[in-house]
Every structure is written in structure tokens, then in C-alpha cells.
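HUMAN: Now follow C-alpha cell order:
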Amino acid sequence: MTAKNVITRYFDAFNAGDTEAMLACLSPDIEHHVNEGNIRVGKVKFAEFCAHMSHCYAEQLTDMVIFASEDGTRGAAEFIVNGTYKATDAGLPEARGQTYRLPAGSFFSLKDGLITRVVTYYNLSDWIKQVS
């Protein structure tokens, strides 16, 4: 399976709300670099993050463009996050069901057909402005 296929499967699972299918795309020692946050290592930490995000946010990614290196070891995606802020996240504005639309991007490292690193970036100030 190509890097582009693995990344596509990962995002298809995200949009379906299927954490187990997302985890199937990840190596056991996945490094998850979160915008404005700490690095989480391992599938357990990744699953915990997904559970927290599902509690606070409902998101669908659209306008997806996926890129991959010829050797299949790196990839990237640019997309729009279309979301609803469902429950207040610690340190952020109060949730009242606000909607938002936010450009974002992710970068990936892959090995043996699995994602070993995912880094996601978005403009937190823009998000705060939209939900405040």
C-alpha cells in the first residue's frame, strides 16, 4: 500500500469517527505531535487523545489534498476542518455549540506501510476568534 493510500485511509477513518480504523494505520510507537501541545507516544495515548477530541469537538475534514514522497516514507495533507465545539476544553473558551471552519495541515512519516509520526498544525488564534 502506498503512503498516499495509508494517509487517505487514516483521514477516511477520521471522518467516519472510527478511532479503531485510525489506530490500524499507526505503528505501535506512533509519535503524535499536536498543535500547541505535547508529543504523545504510542497507540494508547493516541486513542486517549481521540476520545477527548470526540467529547469536545465534532469535526469533518474537507477539501483534502494529500501529498507523498516518491519513496513512501513521508507525506502531507492540507484540508479544511469544519467543526462544532461541543464541550469546553480546558484552558479554552466556553463551548456553546459554536461552529468553525479552519484551514489545517498534517505531516506524516511512514515505515512498513504504517504511520510512525503525525504532526498537525492549525491557527489556534483563528479558532479562538471563531468560537469566542
